[in-house]
Design a protein that fits this description.
Strands 1-2 form a two-stranded antiparallel sheet. It has 8 helices and 2 strands, in the order H-H-E-E-H-H-H-H-H-H. It has one domain (15-218). Helix 3 packs across helix 7. The chain is mainly α and 228 residues long. The radius of gyration is 18 Å and the shape is globular. The two termini are 25 Å apart. It has helices spanning 8-22, 26-50, 75-101, 105-123, 127-146, 149-180, 187-195, 199-218, and strands spanning 54-60, 66-71.
Length: 228
Amino acid sequence: MPETGLPQHIQLSIVLLSALLLCRIPVLGKILKVLNTWIHESAHALASLFTSGEVESIDLFHSGEGLATTRSGHWLGKVMVSLAGYTGASAFAFLSYWLIAQQREQWILYAYLVLGMVTLIFWVRNTYGVIWVMGLLASVALLMYVKQPMVTTYFVWFCSSVILIESMYSAAVILYISLTNPKKSGDAKNLQQFTYIPALFWGLFFFAQALIFSYLSLRQFLPLPFVF
């Protein structure tokens, strides 16, 4: 971590609080939330490819929401694609925190760069989505050009914190919806259709995995006991 004279847990608290507050600002917050949405929808797309499916498009909206349109030719593929969004975002947040703890922040920039180029070239077609991905790519390219380690570290830590917070928040939302209105619970509803297991179970699963990944992420910088 950057040598600022502040303990790691204080730095972590500042970054997390900044991410939490900025994500609640009306316009800026929606722009930032798309970062988690982009990872979420990209995870759906990659899961489809890995299970011999097809990816038609990814749409990213100014509301902070998104949509991945995929085709899967078999049951297992459909299940894996539906599972991939929430778990992929939570796992990406954990991997990012782990890489930061290992002082490998550049790897995260490379991940943004590669994934950004792939999604921009092949999948993202709506105007807002294209502009958003191009903005992210420009930010990453600028960081790589200026080569300021402290700025890079805080940039990737902030982005990772946005993904961590929003993946946790979105998992809590899907749990609530799966309890109160299962027919509109998105991936949980899809999994209910594919597996005949109630949407509430999948809502609980998404929330539980988000909790676990969040705990493991924070444990990279906080002296938390290992309970998983």
